[in-house]
Specification:
184 residues, 8 helices, 0% strand
Length: 184
């Protein structure tokens, strides 16, 4: 059991994505929302687990265990670990703020943009390190590389489906509007 927990925590990006999926399925099964409600539920729990909890966990790991984090990527800790850690905590906090259902779509989108930029940039750095330094360390070329690429895609897809299925309020047409005449 301890090996399974260690594996889950070493691959935390995948672990928390799976938790988000499981929680989403349970909530949808219990609440039975309509199409929009299902997408909104998926987006909200994705923000909570796959971004919020993931990046607070990531930040804590990089700040408290910077040398270990750097070694797991196949790099040396030159101080960048703390910077990554604090940025990660900020991303996680924004996602937790955006999580509640009542929060606007613009905030939810913003909570996806920063981690997407970070993750796709990190994926580029990992790929570069694989090519240039033959670095196949677990947190450079393993699960983290794939989740760096896929997490933003999943997040933006969930946001797009949620936004596209929202209720739209249509303003009545102004058929009897008076003509406006401007005189000088």
């Amino acid at each position: 059991m301890s090996e399974l927990i260690a594996l889950a925590m070493k691959n935390f990006t995948l672990t928390f994505l799976i938790v988000a999926i499981v929680v989403t399925v349970v909530v949808i099964a219990v609440k039975r929302p309509g199409r929009h409600g299902a997408w909104a539920t998926a987006l909200n729990w994705f923000l909570f687990w796959a971004i919020g909890i993931t990046y607070i966990y990531n930040g804590f790991f990089h700040i408290v265990f910077g040398d270990m984090a750097a070694a797991s990527i196949g790099w040396e800790n030159n101080g960048f670990q703390a910077e990554v850690g604090y940025a990660s905590i900020g991303m996680g906090l924004v996602a937790l703020i955006a999580f509640p259902e009542r929060m606007p779509y613009s905030l939810k989108f913003a909570a996806l943009v920063t981690p997407a930029t970070f993750l796709w940039g990190a994926a580029g750095a990992h790929i570069s390190s694989i090519i240039e330094a033959d670095n196949f360390a677990p947190n450079n070329a393993g699960v983290i590389l794939y989740t760096d690429l896929l997490i933003p895609v999943i997040g933006f897809a969930l946001w797009a489906f949620t936004y596209a299925t929202r209720e739209r309020v249509v303003a009545p047409a102004a058929t009897d509007a008076p003509d406006v005449v401007v005189t000088t």
